[in-house]
Design goal:
Oligomer: single chain
Shape: elongated
Helix content: over 70%
CATH topology: Helix Hairpins
Low-confidence stretches: none
CATH architecture: Orthogonal Bundle
Strand order of the largest sheet: 1-2
Strand content: 5-15%
Number of domains: 1
Number of helices: 3
Radius of gyration: 16 Å
Length: 108
């Protein structure tokens, strides 16, 4: 297995599957826990902001999968058509994160 295929497998399948499962969990359970290891502080988020952060993880997973699984395979053929899809889902992820931050700070 060469370096490109290993990168495609790890960043295109393994990491997105982990992020996708975490995102689905947060959307269903409506809770999100952020833990900072150095200071051992925890931020517990509930409700709609938690669901938005879960949706953000799902969008990041889809963007990683498109970019590193399909994008690397298309790059071997000289095609760049998968770049647009990855950028769209990355943009949605950023909007979800900003929406969750706004709702968490406004108390909604």
């Amino acid at each position: 297995m060469d370096n490109s295929r290993l990168k495609s497998f790890f960043l295109g399948i393994i990491v997105p599957c982990l992020l996708l499962s975490m995102g689905i969990h947060h959307v269903i359970v409506k809770t999100f826990l952020l833990v900072r290891i150095r200071t051992r502080s925890r931020i517990y988020i509930e409700g709609t902001p938690a669901q938005l952060l879960g949706l953000m993880l799902i969008c990041v997973a889809i963007a990683l999968h498109i970019n590193y699984f399909w994008g690397l395979r298309a790059a071997e053929d000289g095609s760049e058509k998968y770049e647009v899809g990855a950028k769209i889902f990355a943009g949605i992820a950023i909007l979800c994160a900003l929406g969750a931050l706004f709702l968490a700070l406004s108390g909604g």
